[in-house]
Design a protein that fits this description.
This protein is α+β, with helices and mostly antiparallel strands. It is 46% helix and 18% strand. It is built from twelve helices and nine strands. The strands form two sheets. A five-stranded antiparallel β-sheet has the order 1-8-3-6-9. A four-stranded antiparallel β-sheet has the order 2-7-4-5. Helix 1 (4-14) packs parallel to helix 3 (132-142), helix 6 crosses helix 7 and helix 7 (205-212) crosses helix 8. The longest helix has 18 residues, at 151-168. The model has no long low-confidence stretch (mean pLDDT 88).
C-alpha cells in the first residue's frame, strides 16, 4: 500500500502551522482541525488543495463538494466559498495541504507545454482524486520543512514539479484553459478583477459585460458556468466579506456599510445577516472572541 498520504500526515502534524495556516515555505499552507466546524465563508484564491485526513464540505455558488482523503481541489480564480469540516477529532484531525498557484511559474511551465489547449471553456474550479505522481511531488515539497536551510534554494523547483504533475493530471485542461490570454476565462477574469478592485462602488452588469467583450446575456451565462454564481451574487459576497474584515478590524457598522457600497444601513444589515447568520455587530464580536473562525485559510 502506498504510504505517501500517511507520510504527508506525519509531516503536517510535525510542522503544525500558525493560525493562518502559513508554513515556512511561502506558498504552502496547512489546515489542521481537531474538531468539526460550522459553515464559514471565505474567498478561495487560485490554489491546489489536497485533503489527507478527515472530511470537509465546500459550497461554491450552487454547487456542493465533498473533500475526502485523497481529494485534489483546484481553483484557478478567486471564488467565494462556504466550508465546514464534517469529520475531525483529536485522535484523527482534519488535515489538508494547499499551494497557491504562482502565475509566473505556471506561465513558464506552459511555455514549453506542447499539449493543445482545450477546445471549450473550462470551469474555474475542479475536484478529483490526486494521482500518485502529484502526491509524490507534494511530499518532496513538504519534506523541505525538515531541512529549512534548503527551502530558499529548492522550494521553487519543487513547486514547479507540483505544477507539472498537476498539468499531467485530469486537472490539466482546467489549468491550460485558465492560462489562455485570449480565451473566455481570461476575459471573465478581467471583469472579476474590476469587481474586486471596486468593492465600494457597485458596478452595472452592462459595464462588466463590456469589459469581457460580451453581451449581457452571454456574460451571465459564461460567468455562471465558470464560477457557479451569478455576477451580482458574486459581487455581493465579496463586498460583504470585505465588510466582515473591516468590522473585525474595529470599524463601526455605519462606516463599513458605506465603504463597501451600501446606501442603506438596513439593507446592509439584512444582507450581512443572510450571508453570515448574525447581524454585523454580533458577528464581529464573535469573530474577535474566536479568530480561528475567520482565519484566511480556505482548506
Amino acid at each position: 500500500m502506498d504510504d505517501t498520504i500517511p507520510r504527508l500526515c506525519d509531516l503536517v502534524l510535525a510542522h503544525r502551522p500558525r493560525p493562518d495556516g502559513a508554513t515556512a515555505i511561502a506558498n504552502l499552507h496547512f489546515a489542521v482541525f481537531d474538531q468539526t466546524t460550522v459553515p464559514t465563508l471565505r474567498v478561495c484564491d487560485p490554489m491546489i488543495c489536497v485533503v489527507l485526513q478527515g472530511m470537509k464540505e465546500v459550497t461554491i455558488g450552487a454547487e456542493i463538494l465533498r473533500f475526502a482523503p485523497g481529494t485534489c481541489f483546484l481553483s484557478t480564480m478567486s471564488l467565494p466559498a462556504t466550508s465546514a469540516v464534517l469529520r475531525a477529532d483529536k485522535r484523527r484531525p482534519y488535515l489538508a495541504i494547499s499551494m497557491g498557484l504562482n502565475q509566473d511559474r505556471l506561465a513558464t511551465l506552459l511555455a514549453s507545454d506542447a499539449t493543445p489547449p482545450p477546445p471549450t471553456d473550462a470551469r474555474a474550479f475542479g475536484i478529483g482524486q490526486a494521482p500518485g505522481a502529484l502526491l509524490g511531488a507534494l511530499l518532496n515539497l513538504v519534506a523541505l520543512l525538515d531541512q529549512p536551510q534548503d527551502i530558499a534554494a529548492l522550494a521553487p523547483g519543487r513547486e514547479h514539479e507540483v505544477l507539472y504533475r498537476l498539468l499531467q493530471s485530469d486537472q490539466g485542461p482546467l489549468l491550460r484553459q485558465a492560462a489562455q490570454s485570449d480565451g473566455t476565462t481570461a476575459r471573465l477574469a478581467e471583469a472579476i478583477e474590476r469587481i474586486r478592485g471596486n468593492l465600494g462602488k457597485p458596478l452595472r452588469v452592462e459595464e462588466l459585460a463590456g469589459i469581457a467583450g460580451m453581451s449581457v446575456s452571454s456574460f451571465h451565462r459564461h460567468f455562471k458556468a465558470l464560477t457557479s454564481s451569478s455576477p451580482r451574487q458574486y459581487e455581493k459576497t465579496l463586498r460583504l466579506q470585505a465588510a466582515r474584515r473591516l468590522l473585525v478590524g474595529g470599524n463601526d457598522v455605519t462606516r463599513t456599510a458605506v465603504r463597501v457600497g451600501y446606501d442603506s444601513l438596513a439593507h446592509f444589515s439584512r444582507d450581512y445577516a443572510w450571508l453570515f447568520g448574525l447581524p454585523p455587530s454580533r458577528d464581529a464580536a464573535r469573530l474577535r472572541r474566536d479568530p480561528g473562525v475567520s482565519a484566511p485559510q480556505f482548506i
